Amino acid sequence: NLIQEITDKDLQPYKELEVLLMNNNDIDSMSQNAFQSLTNLEELDLSYNKLTNMLPTWFGHLQSLKRLNLLGNQYTSLGESSLFSALSSLKELKIGNRNFEAFHRHDFDGVLSLDNLYLNISNLRQYANGTLKTIKSIRHVSITTNIPLLPDIITDLSLSAIVLEIRNMSFRQHGDVESFIALTDTTVKVLMYRECLLTDNSAARLIEIIHTYKNVTDFDLLDCTLEGTGHGAPFLKDENSSLTTVVIKNLYIPNFYLFSDLSFVYKIVRKIKSVTCVDSKVFLMPCNFSRSFKMMEYLDLSGNLLTDLLLGSTSCFYDGFGAWPLLKSLNVSRNRLLSLQNVAQTLAHVPSLTTIDLSQNSFGGSTPSSCIWPVNLKSLNISNCQIRQISDCIPVTLEHLDVSFNNLEEFVLSLPNLKVLYISENRLTKLPADAHLPLLNLLIFRENRLIDFFQSDLKFFPNLIGLDGRKNSYFCSCQFVDFVKKNHKLLIGWPQDYICDSPTSVRDNQIDKANLPLLMCHKTLVVTLTCIILILGITFILALCYYFHIVWYVKMTCAWLKAKRRPLKVLDREIC
Does the keyword Nucleus apply (predicted)? Predict the structure, then answer.
């Protein structure tokens, strides 16, 4: 829209309004009492307008306001007095723009706690120490600012924030990250970099600092860029670091093919329990690096460039084993793995492994007749792997199996411990009654080619408590509709996602609302009743004829008609 001004009367009729979104307009002027009538307002968005000044009177009557967005305007500060002191219910606050220059000591007076604080202050020139310290508790802080003022800001947030997110900043030099020393003693649990740039020098110094942390447990790099080849040389002391979780997503490394073996960080990873490194062009984790993760329980390397051979090197298969001694869950989906048998053999010597995700690789065709898997494996995901036929390569120890999004036409495995089976979006025309699944609790059978099912099919799954059969091509016969209605408590998504595909008379109707013709459901009864009614009707007509002498009257009528026509014929001959 192109709203430019808000007057006292514009919003008066909307006293019950709870959400007001006026973002992306041209508002440059608002009267002091513009929002006075909106005492029930909970969300106000004034972002990306042309406001040059902030007035506390705008928000003086908004005690119910929970979310306020002031991003992208043209104000340079938050005014001469506390802007938010009347907002006692405020939980989410977004402020800042390219013109914002100064924070004053009183700016956040009256704000005691927030769930989310978003600060876009990339051109900040002045920051009064203690400005953000007045906020006692902040669940998530997101900051974009310039590096010289970052130490003061982080110091003020170090004893109030839980999640500290640094956005869209560049750390090129060794000293650019010195401000994070303030988190050595802190309430912050998660340190997150999003859309930031690091170099070998700044990354090395950041690793040194993180290694000294006593309270930060999570370190995240999201959509960041690392300019370098990993040849930084951090000096790591024997510290008892609190870091247990590392998340790296979509890390762009221009020279990733020249990246080092990261031997300088072996010491820091010993106590890390969870590592996620996805969509970052990882093609190898050196064996010695894998062995350094002494306490790691979860590893996600999905969306990378691992091949069968390189996964073997990563797991120390060719170097005497010993990788990830406590690893329980491994995700290598969306890589370049080609042989299920080779992958199974590669991971068989990871002793604690219970969960493997191999989805969205290209195993293709049929699985081999036998495979060696980790002895404690309980969960396996091989969905979307172009598998046409599945064999005894699947381990019998499984309790959870996902083979969805393949090209399976049958499923006849014997898995005596299996409790959950995902087999959606294949080409199956019937439930897997030929398989041996005595403990199966949950069967997800969506979007196959299933026409119907009956008690004779379900009896093979005595412990089944949930069946998801949505979006199949059901033939709604009378017997099937009646059976499903009686057993619908077993069905997940009932009734809205169970639709008849045929016969034509009920196509696209929900099964529970399918009104089939009487003749279709009770053909024998209808034919029998029709014959009986026809016989009775004929008998009744004959009885009436006999009772009312209908036959005699018919004969007399015929004789009379013949007698009436005879004189006319004689007269015609005489005229001729």
Answer: no
